[in-house]
Task: structure prediction
Amino acid sequence: MVEDCVFCKIRKGEIPSTVLYSDDDFMIIKDINPQAKIHLVAIPNIHVPYIDMMTEEGACILGKIISKISHLQEELGITGGYRLVVNQGENAHQTVAHVHIHILGGEKLKDF
Ligand code: AMP
Ligand code: ZN
Result:
């Protein structure tokens, strides 16, 4: 937990959010500024600021999250596919320094 981290504050209930799923490892919330019809954020409980700083333990949790997302699709209202995105640093416009996975879907997304 880092005092001024938005996602740690959300986990502690200090900032309100719409939580769609949570377990001992992570939570899935609705993104406050959606970039697709469905835009969720999967947030590990452990505070690791950047994917560049990811530990083996953290990487294992990210793996669990990705696996869990695939099982939660229906619950999350996703059909027909989805996109997972992790932003790293300035050029990728990372704004929250607590590693998280964007889940985008609910519509045909733009091709790269
Ligand atoms: P990134 O730009 O990859 O760091 O993504 C951070 C994401 O967190 C952005 O899509 C924001 O819209 C989202 N976000 C920031 N604050 C909140 C909040 N209080 N509740 C939900 N999503 C948030
Ligand atoms: Zn944090």
